Amino acid sequence: MTRLYLLCLLLVVCATTAQGQVLSLPPQPETEELPIPPVEEAGKPYLYEHFTPRDYNAQQQNWAITQTPDGKIYVANLSGVLEYDGVSWRLIRTTTDAWVRSLDVASDGTVYVGSWGDIGYLAPDSTGTTHFRSLIAHVNPEDREFADVWRTLTTEEGVYFQTRTHVFFWNGQTMKVWHSEDLFRWAFVVGDTFYMREKGKGLLTRVGDELQLVSGGAAFAGEVIYMMEPYDEEAILIGTWEGFYIYRNNEVRPFVTELDDLLPTLDVYAGTTVGDDFFCHYYSGARRYYPEQRRESCSCAGSGRRFS
Asked: pLDDT under 70 in the chain at which residues?
């Protein structure tokens, strides 16, 4: 996982493009080699490699990354899906040759993919070469008009594909779909439980065949949730553009940080946990937070680091 995490940081990521912007696919531009900052060794040093678009021969923006049990790395790229076997890169194009925004790997090792107007998975042919297989034939014709699939999330029961207007769920045999009355933004899986924030409603979860508000979820009707991560065995850390929250025992409480006043100005894009720390990623950099003995407040370290 260390190799995957470092590769994720060192790939040229999509830190400069606003969410929801409709992008064209221009010819691959000449890109300047970016300098790699020195690594300060503390204990066992990390081994890492730095890849540019010239190395993987595709567009420079990468939107998601995952790794299969056999060690291969797959990246959602504007040219398609990038496959890296530790030696070389290969581009896997979708059926419609569209860009890919999201992907995730299931417990059986299958990589599911969300692209512009299409959803599917990766599977080998008779020669063992991996290709994209579309699931669009399992979607009702009236539900096939959608744009980017911003989240692809696997669970033990199946896989969710989230667009701004639809959420699709594929259990391996049938396709379920939910429609937004306004806007879906964004979907998450925490502890194998699916969560969905819908504009004007709040934080939803799946109950049977319906998406229902969680207790206290209406608090997020007007706040965009950009991250949901396990905080401890009972609580979830929720990040929004306005601040952080702890969701515990069906109750939402503020999570105080040193950047609370600054967060609304950062255009925060994503967040994740690494060990006992969590990282807040915004369009021009990242911040690292140290929860103090897992108290419901935390401090911030450093001034952030810019990703190009």
From this structure: 1-47, 278, 280-308
